[in-house]
Amino acid sequence: MTRSRLLVLFAQAALFFLASSVRADAELDAEVVRAKRIVAEVSALTPGMISALDSKEATRIAATWERASVALSHAVAARTQASSGQDISATFGTFLESNGLQGLTQDEMLKRVKSIAARADPRELDAAISELEVRFPAYSAYQRRVRVRTVIEKLSPAMKTVEGLRTGGRPLNRLPDSALAGVRAAPGVRSAAYADGRFSVVFDERVAAGGTLDVEIVSLERGKSDWRCAVAPSVEKFAPAACRR
């Protein structure tokens, strides 16, 4: 999770809390202790040690880091919500600094976590993330946005292929089935298809069960083209602004 995405998650999390200040502070203290533990553990890992991690240990560390980031952002948001008049967008970074937790958003640490996650068991890590989504509502919404954005990013190579067909005056009716392999394998995707300049993706319950994303090439003036994106109502709140009706 990048620094910018973590800050976005924190801002979203603040909307979910109407907790008392006593409860929020107690939760926050506990999350700080947990976060310091995992930051210290990851800080102590050298590249060689990371390379030697087995999938079970890598999964544990990556899942614990993700949980620490998510739970801490929610706990800080809960306290901020309970204390009126605070600027929630500025609070989180200040809080990390004052508690020696800058590592949660430092590039070097995030690169280490990415390397660790690459060695993790994908199914086990996905299961851990699913548990976090159940526990933390803002994290669930955040992950659904990430999944939609990931699908759009994975469509990009196939979209460029279609643009090349149009530029060369060739038919747009077919693409190799392999062109959508990455999209079909993306988390949250039930199916993906292409026909005549239009990509159609159907999501599963990890985004919005049965919700759709359609991306279609359209003609502009002077032989130029562009892409039009549209999503079903159930997907709108998770989609980029350009795809909303």
Could you explain how this protein is built, in words?
With 245 residues, the protein is an alpha+beta fold. The chain contains nine helices and four strands. The two termini are 29 Å apart.
Which range does the strand content fall in? 5-15%
Give the averaged pLDDT, no decimals: 83
How would you name the oligomeric state of the polypeptide chains in this document? single chain
Write out the strand line-up for the largest beta sheet, numbering strands in chain order.
1-2-3-4
Considering DSSP H and I runs of 4 or more, what fraction of the residues is helical? 55-70%
Order of helices and strands: HHHHHHHHHEEEE
Number of helices: 9
Largest sheet: 4 strands, antiparallel
Number of strands: 4
By secondary-structure content and strand pairing, the structural class works out as: alpha+beta
**What is the terminal separation in angstroms?**
29 Å
Gyration radius, in Å: 21 Å
The shape is elongated
Uncertain runs: 15-22, 82-89
Features:
alpha+beta, 245 residues, elongated, single chain, four-stranded antiparallel β-sheet, 9 helices
Q: Any chance you could write out the topology, listing elements then pairs?
A:
Elements: H1 3-13, H2 21-43, H3 47-51, H4 55-82, H5 88-98, H6 107-118, H7 122-135, H8 137-167, H9 181-185, E1 189-195, E2 198-203, E3 212-219, E4 225-231
Antiparallel strand pairs: 1-2, 2-3, 3-4
Helix pairs in contact: 1-4, 1-5, 1-8, 2-4, 4-5, 4-6, 4-7, 7-8
